[in-house]
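Hi V.,

You were right to ask for the full record rather than a summary. Here it is.
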Amino acid sequence: MEGLLRGERDLENRLPILADHLQSKLTLPDEVSALDSTSAKARLRLGLFSYPVLQAADILLYGATHVPVGEDQVQHLEFARQCAEQFNAVYGEVLVKPQTVLSSAKRVMSLKEPYLKMSKSHQDFRSRIQINDDPQIIGDKIRLALTDSITGLSYDPENRPGVSNLLAIMSYLDEQGRTAEELAEAYNPMSMRQFKATVTSAISEGLASTRDKYHRIMNNDKTHYLDDIAIEGSNKARRQADMTMAAVRQVIGLERAGNHLKKV
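Predicted structure:
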C-alpha cells in the first residue's frame, strides 16, 4: 500500500507539467486577429482543439518517425513533436519525436474554387481529381476548371489562381521537373483550350499506373490482398501501441501502481 501511495504522489507531481503544456498550446491568445470578435469566438467548435490532440496521440502512440502531411498540417505535426519533447524532458527518452515530411505538392487547390484547397468532401465532385478517374472524366473536369479570359499563360496565384493551379499540378507531374513558372513560359503560346488538353494528358498519364493497379485490385483480385494488408497492419499497429503504452505506464508510475493493486 505504501508503494501504491508513493506512485500516486509521483503522478500528482508530474502530470500537471504535461497538463499545463497542453493547456498552453490549446488556449487561444486574446490577440489572435482572426478571432477578435466575440461572435467569432462563440462559433468555435471542440474539433478545433481536439483534432490536434487526437492526431498527436495517433502519431506518438505508434512511434511514427516521419509523417507525410500537407502544408496546412505542419503546425499539428509541430504540436505532436512538442508534446513528445515535453514528455521526454520529464520522463526520459520514451516517445519518438516525429519529423514532418512535405512533398513538392504542398497544397493542391480546387478546380472549381482555386482559392480553396482541393478536398474529397467538397460538394461538387468536379472540383477534384481522384486517382481512379479515367481519362474522359479527367478531361471533363479540367475542361470545366475555373480559369480566366487573360491571353497567354502565367504563374500568378494571387491574380490568376485557376491557371496557376493547373500549372502547379502539371509541375508536380512533369518528368523534367520543371517549375510552374517554367511551364507557363513553355506553353505560353497555347490557347486556354489547348493548355487544358495538355493538362488533361499530363494528369491522366501521371495517374495511369496507380489507376490501373487500383482497378486491378478492386475488380479482379481474388487473393484477399487488401484484407491481408489490413490484418497485417492492424497487428503491427497493436504491437507498437502496446509497447508504447507499456513504456509510458512504466515511467509515469501507473505500472507500479497497477502491480501494487494486484497484490492488495
